[in-house]
């Protein structure tokens, strides 16, 4: 197991979060998304969006957390972004209240592939769950590409399962299927 930890993202992390996002997408999604789409993603644009997400979250229950690998020096190796579910968490045609109250939505959970299988994803997810408990969220949802077996397997290993909702993202006139997974937020363990 790697020596690592999770902390809240800082404004100065935005560039590295964008780099991790691009590097991960270009490896993990190369068979899912069109190559020219991945090649044309703008890292500076993504960094500006991550900077805004960190500095001006929509609410106190929106969090961007980063995973840090510790060695002779520390490296950001992954991140998770989550907050209360909004319209983006809904399936096409679902009414606005379909998910109910108290639901968290994971918008991103990525660990750069070269740092995978070292516990960073589990630490990120555990830290997010801790925030959800504090924020009063009792269930969580996340969309995963149907063809992203690694993400689906990782989430399934932690208790997530499909909830029956599906959608297709239109990426440059190509429909990419996704399915929604969900999990109950486990209560805090009794220390006694």
Automatic annotation (TrEMBL):
Residue ranges occupied by any N-acetyltransferase domain in the UniProt entry: 4-182
Q: Name one Pfam family in it.
A: Acetyltransf_1
| InterPro entries linked | Acyl_CoA_acyltransferase, Bact_Acetyltransf, GNAT_dom
Keyword annotations of the record: Acyltransferase, Transferase
GO function term, MF aspect, one: acyltransferase activity, transferring groups other than amino-acyl groups
**Which Gene3D superfamilies does the protein's record reference?**
3.40.630.30
Q: What protein name does the entry list?
A: L-amino acid N-acyltransferase YncA
Source organism (scientific name): Micromonospora narathiwatensis
């Amino acid at each position: 197991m790697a020596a690592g930890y999770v902390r809240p993202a800082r404004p100065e992390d935005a560039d590295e979060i964008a780099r991790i996002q691009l590097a991960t997408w270009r490896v993990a999604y190369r068979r899912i998304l069109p190559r020219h789409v991945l090649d044309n993603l703008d890292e500076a644009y993504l960094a500006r969006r991550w900077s805004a997400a960190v500095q001006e979250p929509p609410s106190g229950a929106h969090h961007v957390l980063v995973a840090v690998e510790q060695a002779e020096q520390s490296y950001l190796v992954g991140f998770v972004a989550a907050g209360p579910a909004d319209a983006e968490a809904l399936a096409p045609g679902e009414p606005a209240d379909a998910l109910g109250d108290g639901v968290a939505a994971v918008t991103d959970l990525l660990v750069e592939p070269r740092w995978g299988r070292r516990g960073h994803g589990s630490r990120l997810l555990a830290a997010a769950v801790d925030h959800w408990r504090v924020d009063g969220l009792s269930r969580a949802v996340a969309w995963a590409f149907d063809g992203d077996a690694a993400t689906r397997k990782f989430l399934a290993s932690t208790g997530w399962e499909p909830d029956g909702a599906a959608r297709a993202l239109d990426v440059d006139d190509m429909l990419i299927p996704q399915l929604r997974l969900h999990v109950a937020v486990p209560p805090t363990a009794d220390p006694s």
